[in-house]
Design brief:
About 80% of the residues lie in helices and about 0% in strands. The protein is rod-shaped and about 110 Å long. By secondary structure, it is mainly α. It has 6 helices and no strands. The N and C termini lie far apart (about 145 Å). About 10% of the residues are buried. The protein has a domain of about 120 residues. The longest helix has about 80 residues.
């Protein structure tokens, strides 16, 4: 059979069966498109999961950065407050020290003699008032130290000098007069007793 006849017979059979070469291609094409569609869907799903994972990682990073900023801020505030408290305590201490020094300068030199006196030390009313002011200034400074307004390290700088002043006969004499006013402040009263015992 001639090749043309074969081709013609094939075309006739296709025509009789209601199909064509183009028809066959049209029928088989959707199968290939379905496979590609599945691959596209899977790729889109993978990209979506990858994007979600990136967003979650970025969210964790931002949370850690926010937490770090908060911690740094709290540390800075605490440091500033601590520094400010120390500065305030030093300022309070210096002001009281200056006040006590000014009062002491207004007393006669004899008031600071450490020799024991056989009886009552004679003082003018003004000198007695100054001694009382010194005692109460020291009391106020001591209470500020007890309640944390004056750092212990700063207090220790001046404490030996304060104890020496309070152990002088003229101050011991006047402490016996005003000590009853410190009954509600047992720590200060105990400190005064310790100074008196050390002098004895």
């Amino acid at each position: 059979m001639l090749p043309g006849a074969i081709e013609g017979g094939l075309d006739d059979r296709l025509v009789r069966s209601g199909k064509s070469v183009i028809g066959i291609s049209t029928i088989t094409a959707p199968r290939g498109n379905k496979g590609r569609g599945t691959q596209v869907a899977q790729g889109s799903w993978a990209r979506s999961r990858k994007v979600e994972g990136g967003i979650a990682a970025l969210d964790h990073i931002l949370k850690f950065m926010t937490l770090g900023i908060i911690i740094v801020g709290i540390t800075a505030i605490y440091t500033a407050l601590h520094t400010n408290n120390r500065r305030l305590g030093a300022d309070i201490f210096l002001r009281y020290s200056e006040r006590i020094s000014d009062l002491r300068r207004r007393l006669p030199t004899a008031a600071f003699h450490d020799e024991g006196a056989g009886g009552t030390i004679e003082m003018t009313p003004d000198e007695r008032r100054i001694v009382h002011e010194v005692i109460f200034s020291i009391f106020e400074l001591y209470e500020l130290k007890v309640h944390g307004f004056v750092p212990p390290g700063i207090w220790k700088i001046r404490e030996p000098d304060i104890e020496r002043v309070l152990s002088l006969p003229v101050f011991q004499q006047e402490l016996a007069v005003v000590q009853g006013r410190f009954a509600k402040h047992p720590r200060f009263a105990a400190w005064l007793d310790q100074i008196g015992q050390g002098r004895a």
